[in-house]
Amino acid sequence: MATAGRSSPPRRANRLIYERSPYLQQHAHNPVDWYPWGQEAFDKAKRENKLIFLSVGYSTCHWCHVMEEESFKNQEIGEIMSKNFVCIKVDREERPDVDKVYMTFVQATSGGGGWPMSVWLTPDLRPFVGGTYFPPEDSAHHVGFRTVLLRIAEQWRQNQEALLQSSQRILEALRSLSRVGTQDQQAAPPAQEVLTTCFQQLSGSYDEEYGGFSQCPKFPTPVNLNFLFTYWALHRTTPEGARALQMSLHTLKMMAHGGIHDHIGQGFHRYSTDRHWHVPHFEKMLYDQGQLAVVYSRAFQISGDEFFADVAADILLYASRDLGSPAGGFYSAEDADSYPTATSSEKREGAFCVWAAEEVRALLPDPVEGAADGTTLGDVFMHYYGVKEDGNVSPRKDPHKELQGKNVLIAHSSPELTAAHFGLEPGQLSAVLQEGRRRLQAARAQRPRPHLDTKMLASWNGLMISGFAQAGAVLAKQEYVSRAAQAAGFVRRHLWEPGSGRLLRSCYRGEADVVEQSAAPIHGFLEDYVFVIQGLFDLYEASLDQSWLEWALQLQHTQDKLFWDPKGFAYFSSEAGDPSLLLRLKDGAWGPWAEQGWSWRWADVTPCPLQTRMEQSPLPTLLLSQTCSEQPRIPATWSGWKRLGRSWLPSLRGCRRSRWPCPRWPGPLPCSITPSNRW
Q1: Residue 182 region, left (φ>0) first, then alpha (ψ -120 to 50), else beta?
Q2: For domain 15-177, is the CATH number 3.40.30.10?
Q3: Taking the CA of residue 485 as centre, how many other CA atoms within 13 Å lie in the half-sphere pointing to its CB?
Q4: Residue 671 CA, distance from chain mean position
Q5: Residue 600 pLDDT exceeds 50
Q6: What is the pLDDT of residues 271-309, one digit of tens each?
Q7: In angstroms, rounded to a whole number, what is the distance separating the alpha carbons of residues 552 and 536?
Q8: What pTM value is reported for the model?
Q9: Largest Cα–Cα distance in the chain?
Q10: Which residues pair with 129 in a beta bridge?
Q11: Spans of all domains in the chain
């Protein structure tokens, strides 16, 4: 497609204007002849013997926005791209299979990865050069994107045969790397050995002061925290069990006090850029909210500390209010970047969430009754949340100077010390902080909101179903269970094909909030089945509505039929039959979110009213055996093994909800589903 002339802004739409993905829509007016992933682009590359430039990202990705602004909106760079390459854009959240194949290549060749992912392919889709973000022009430390484009185009013209041979060798190496699940089956290691190794690895990497399991960046990793709860349940009378519980609860408290937790708008940001949980990467992802709601609910169930129940409620409030669809599902994410004011021309990371000291003072000028003369609401609020006159963000954590003079709220002082400092009673302090948060939230509502990705994914909605269902059962809140049922109904109506029994990957918000599908719907991947099935089991346990259990068993059967490899003892990540995928991968460690791969066979190892006899499926042991042989050096990634307690860890059968300090069950369970089967 021809691009606009240099004399006027390039506003002519390219093919991406017809796509439903918010990420692809963001690039629909680039001066680049973008194609979506599909046969039209592949045919063009073969017909014209052109290389493919593949760019993969997602709509709330900060560096994806940066590369678009610097390179993809640049008229001259756009012309170089369109002249020399068939340019393809992929939303990694729509097509995790495509992303996974080429990320495997980038990680294998560079030792790292991330988004935006930039990969150059031969016309038959074999990768030979790849990376992530490229600056537009050369610098002392980096080769610019313009130079990379020109060099690769020249190499294709001059050394085409050599590049083809290189790409074939790369493909063969990738196939070798991807042979997870092709070795001979090995016996699963003893349960206690694996649990101990996982615990020791987490204990060794634990941050004693601030919690978490790394220095920085620091991610919430709820799967690790859930594992530690399991380890405590099995070893609660031992020093190791006590340490497991201490590590998990301390981490959860430090996260909730930190800036990674949005104290004004609720919910959690993606990760912290420092070990203190202070300065976050400000995007908010649905999958984090679902998992964290579960882990905070469990923390309350174990400890009886209302603090954790309050945080779980905080997360679910954010998810319902800001990510909830009127149709019943949940949107995917909120961006990190936004305009500081309605008249701003440039977005900044965190602009929606940060505060200048003078803003806080202006919003909270009232004197505090009972405090020292002259003490205002602002004084107390700023003391508690660490607000400083010149900002509380270290320049080392603000390389682009977007947060200069701003404050990221963090519970800097304990409530007891703050109350004592100002001569207040604890109840007075709580009221002051609550009023301060209310006023700041009202002021923040007047700011331009970050971009909302209104794509709705089956897998992430499944995680949110679990979050609401488990919180509803533990906190005894029927409204949470009802919200989980509403989301499950949404998935059934909009993301499931009754005829084939298959899930769909995604749907989208259209005009007037009407739910729409793309012209060529994308069928679900393994993660979609895993998380929807788990959500349905959690919803069944919270509601005892047998229809959710029946549907979960039906989906489990479909999952086994579509993804299980009986020869390789593992599940494929995607269905068979897509000729555009170079590799059909199996993934034992599974992505940045959740316990995928480990909630799979729950229906086969848990007695239920729909089964005429109790049976133990061999699939959990088969999958464990294969995973053990493939991942002997990273047992911490196996922490999802707690899901196998019913068959592989028989001692878990003794760990009942009723033994925990704060059981929360909505009513008596049928005799064939007892609390010992699901805690």
Answers
A1: alpha
A2: yes
A3: 17
A4: 36
A5: no
A6: 999 999 999 999 999 999 999 999 999 999 999 999 999
A7: 6
A8: 0.89
A9: 82
A10: 120
A11: 15-177, 339-449
